[in-house]
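Lesson 9: reading folded outputs for more than one chain in a single document. The general rule is that every protein is listed as its sequence immediately followed by its structure tokens, and records are never interleaved. Here is the first one.
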Amino acid sequence: MRRLTKTAAVAGVVALVLAGAACSKKSDDSASTETGGENCVEKTDDMKVGMAFDVGGEGDQSFNDSAAKGMKQAACEFGFDFQTAEAQDGEAESAREGRLQELVDAGYNPVVAVGFAYSASVGKVAAENPDVSFAIVDDAVEGDNITNLLFAEEQGSFLVGAAAALKSETGNVGFVGGVETELIQKFEAGFIAGAKAVKSDIKVQTRYLTQPPDFSGFGDPAKGKTAAEGMFDAGADIVYHAAGGSGGGVFEAAKAADGWAIGVDSDQALTADDSVKDIILTSMVKNIDVAVHEFLKSVHDGAVKTGAQVYDLESNGVGYSTTGDHLKDVADQLEDYKKQIVDGTIEVPTKP
């Protein structure tokens, strides 16, 4: 296949005895050592932030890393301590509950849960701890002390779908989802809609790596690689992933096939391994870091907004990256689609 031309340490570290989550990983982080060193303010805030990562944890080059970035930026700016803990593949609901409760018991407030897998646990633990502020990324959970950090993933995915159709030479593109949930279906729906808005007869291959309650599809690069290889073998020249850490495998498959890949959540042309950065056409950027930072700032300022806080194209909560200038020849068309979504001319579906 011919690819298109591509011109604090926590003072007195509190040991999290994850009794209800014995298989969890934890890390002790610091505003001074992790988030800017000498440029960070001294610890001046009594606030202690807990963050519970989803499967893949920090280092996934995707949504967990984006959440961590927002927390560390806030810690640097406001001078508070933080603690993180990580989910494991196949863990029980009790493990997620235990992880959140141990953060609370250790004095962390607020607590940020990264990922919809924490929905039930956040609802339960927040109800049992009404004086603690909770935030959850990617789901709406009711509670007077819960802030829902939500995104219009379908809108950003529409734009990278349009980009894929505009750049494809074979008229055949692919979508790899990590786990088939309503959230990831929003990525798929937007991607298909954007591609077909450009080219109604374009072929869009889709594949999910796992089905709930198996969430390992977000942390299995081998499965991501196999899925993408099948798509390239079947004629695709561009594959978009919404699969967290499994996306690394999609990038490897694109490299081997001399094709393109589209990243997700972060600008993955900046975060992925150097060996694959050049095959990342664009990424659907989901600014989780901005949402987390704004939530933590609101807690710091004593002005927490609970309930749904939605980040969309209009608020620059989602979008697409331009690293590498691979889209400069179609930029005007993409911006026109963006304008039509923002003004309501185009209504992007949330289900395939």
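And here is the second record, again sequence then tokens.
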Amino acid sequence: MDPSVAASLFTIFVVMPKEYLFISHEPLRLSEEETRTRAHDFLRLMDRRRSVRQFSDAPVPLEVIENIVRTASTAPSGAHKQPWTFCVVSDADLKRRIREAAEQEEQASYNGRMPKDWIEDLAPLGTDWRKPFLETAPYLIIVFKRAYELKPDGSKRKNYYVEESVGIACGFLIAAIHQAGLVSLTHTPSPMNFLSALLERPENERPFLLVPIGYPAAECRVPDLTRKELSDVMVRY
């Protein structure tokens, strides 16, 4: 290799921080009409999304789950640290142990830990401490937030805007699940420390969200809910 070329490559890949390397970005260039159509169609798709607690045990191809996680991982994150880990659980025994531990926490919450107004708000949804879907759904995805990264020498490197970044990634995850024709539920038993122990996660990870995924049961029913009007959620300036 020509010495001048080698020197240039050394400067680019070793001396210059990777943050200064840029590539061309070629976003979709759509007509105004196509933009309107896509926005409207995606709204119609997502407006049909519902949280489901009655799952079928029908299998889902692992490739589908992997692509859903890949989609979630395209989310923006603070300083591009991607501070998340998606633990995919399909093992029946592990799902059973997760259910048992989650129900133990949920039973304590429903029987004293949750304030009265929270119980009252949940009542119309018909939920209680029993969580059979944690075993029925073919997959559970447990999302962990990475508070910091562990270097090979054991030292720590900080992550930024971890809660915000992981929250956005979970939004991408839920949208990808729905787009694939599957259903999900955002489950947050509190506290969730048992998930770290059961899944043997490292010290820099904290459980953030537990998401059962699968097809809906044949007799699946959901509450007849309405969403807020645009005027209630959008303020134009």
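What the second record shows: Confidence is low (pLDDT under 50) at residues 5-16.
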